[in-house]
Amino acid sequence: MENTKLSLPLFAALLLTNAIVVLANSNENSDMNNNLSVIENSCAITLYPQLCQSTIYSIVGTSNLLSLKDIVEVSLSVAVDAAKHNYKNINKLWMSLNDVSKRDKIALRDCVETTDRAIYELHKAVEDLREYPNKKSLTLYADDLKTFLSSAITNQETCLEGLSHEKTEKRVLKLIESTHIHVTKLCSNTLALVKKLTHTDFTNQQTNKMTSDHPTIVLFSHHVDQEEGENRGIREDLEDGIKWPEWMASRDRRLLESSYEATADVVVAADGSGNYKTVSEAVAAAPSKSSKRYVIRIKGGVYKENVDVPSSKTNIMFWGDGRSNTIITASRSVGGGSTTFNSATVGNTAQPQLF
Questions:
Q1: Cβ(149)–Cβ(123) under 8 Å?
Q2: Cα dihedral value 134, 218, 252, 313, nearest 10
Q3: For 269, how many CA atoms within 13 A lie in the half-sphere containing its CB?
Q4: Where is the Pectinesterase inhibitor domain (predicted)?
Q5: Residue 168 — φ and ψ, nearest 5°?
Q6: Tell me, what's the pLDDT at 31?
Q7: Alpha-carbon distance 108 to 163, whole Å?
Q8: Among residues 74, 46, 48, which one has the least CA distance to residue 59?
Q9: At what angle do helices 68-96 and 102-131 cross, to 10 degrees?
């Protein structure tokens, strides 16, 4: 009887321990199910929902419940890591693959550059998302984030286009195609999630404004993007009736509305009457990593050159005397042996600029 009395506290302790374990397992399962539900609902709007779910859940697991912003950050982080890994592989391939044609070698070099650009744009998106939504308006956040991610996707696709020419060795394309497509899908999923995040927050913000004591009236003109079913706002200037894109900063609208002579930093003139005779010279002389808009006026004339704007030349604006007066033309073409990336008359490898 005494032994039975002594064992009762132990038995009670064991029951309590088992109850705690069961409760812990129950809470863990509950968190897991809730996380799965949040992830599935968020990923449902992406083009590749299964990829979206698997990549995000593989990182967050049963951690704290996720907000939509958390999911976007995880998705973007995965895309960055995949793009970096892809860049290393392509760079190694470009340096080591010597038994290919000159054109294929150039195409691989283009892939190194465009993939590097994609990584840069993804990092800019990371920076924007880190401070979201506190530093600027939700509309600007939405436009900037979508621009960075769309540019990253475009750069990935440009690489594959350069290797899709009929004269390209198929083995070269196969060596990088699957990893490039994987990164593109990750970026596409992140773009869809960003759209959902910014649209949801913007809708909530407008709802709060309309229900406040001092409602704000915002005038929008919408059109539907047939490819992505996206509503994009265009702000209407009520004073002069001009409609400017929502993504355009007010300082850039003022530049477009002002007289040109008051805003040009340098002038390009084929006849020698300006600071430079070619656009390329003006771009080369422009400040690197400029924090303000740098305006290059291009006087009327024909400029036979390919203009490359490197990533270090940020915030550049080209301003001509009209499309029929200022003409930039060159002879590079895919048929002539150039890749898609290098055949552009004006190649902008920097972050999105206002040209």
A1: no
A2: 40
A3: 7
A4: 34-193
A5: -75, 140
A6: 55
A7: 8
A8: 74
A9: 160
Tens-digit pLDDT profile for residues 87-106 = 999 999 999 888 888 888 88
- Phi/psi at 266 (nearest 5 deg)? -140, 160
Structure tokens that stand for 280 in this block = 């390329």
Per-residue pLDDT of 197-251, as tens digits, reads 999 998 888 887 665 544 433 333 333 333 333 333 434 443 445 455 555 666 6
The answer to whether residue 69 scores a pLDDT higher than 60 is yes
Question: Cβ(122)–Cβ(144) under 8 Å?
Answer: no
* Dist CA 152 CA 352 (whole Å): 11
Whether the predicted model's global pTM rises above the 0.70 cut: no
Question: Is the pLDDT at 348 greater than 70, yes or no?
Answer: no
| Mean pLDDT comparison of 135-144, 190-199, 238-247, highest-scoring range | 190-199
Name residue 297's beta-bridge partners: 267, 319
| Alpha-carbon span 202 to 208, nearest angstrom | 10
